[in-house]
Write a sequence for this structure.
């Protein structure tokens, strides 16, 4: 079951990232977390940090999945990011969670939901 801040609707991300390869501003209502070119491992570490912070802030039970929108033009290799996420989440509060990637055609790199155990 996805968890979202109450003030955001279903189409808005929790957080947005922007890589230096992107030439336009991402249209999102979440804070722009990073505007520098990032390697997939550093992106994964940031996603894990954000998910752990949100889990603690909301006092959530175990996170089963982190949902991400990833655009084809974001300059991020999906498979490398998924592998890096598994490595980065080991030993953290979201260890064992999977990264579920929704691929899009744009520049998106948005963490938009956390899936938790009921």
């Amino acid at each position: 079951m996805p968890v979202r801040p109450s003030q955001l609707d279903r189409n808005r991300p929790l957080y947005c990232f922007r890589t230096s390869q992107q030439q336009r501003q991402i249209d999102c209502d979440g804070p722009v977390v990073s505007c520098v070119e990032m390697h997939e491992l550093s992106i994964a570490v940031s996603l894990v940090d954000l998910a752990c912070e949100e889990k603690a802030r909301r006092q959530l039970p175990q996170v089963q999945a982190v949902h991400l929108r990833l655009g084809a033009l974001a300059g991020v290799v999906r498979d490398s990011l998924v592998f890096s996420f598994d490595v980065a989440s080991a030993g953290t509060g979201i260890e064992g969670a999977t990264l579920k990637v929704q691929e899009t055609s744009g520049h998106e790199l948005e963490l938009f939901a956390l899936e938790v155990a009921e």
The two ends are 8 Å apart (CA to CA). Residues 40-58 form the longest helix (19 residues). Residues 2-116 form a domain with the hypothetical protein PF0899 fold fold (CATH 3.30.2320.50).
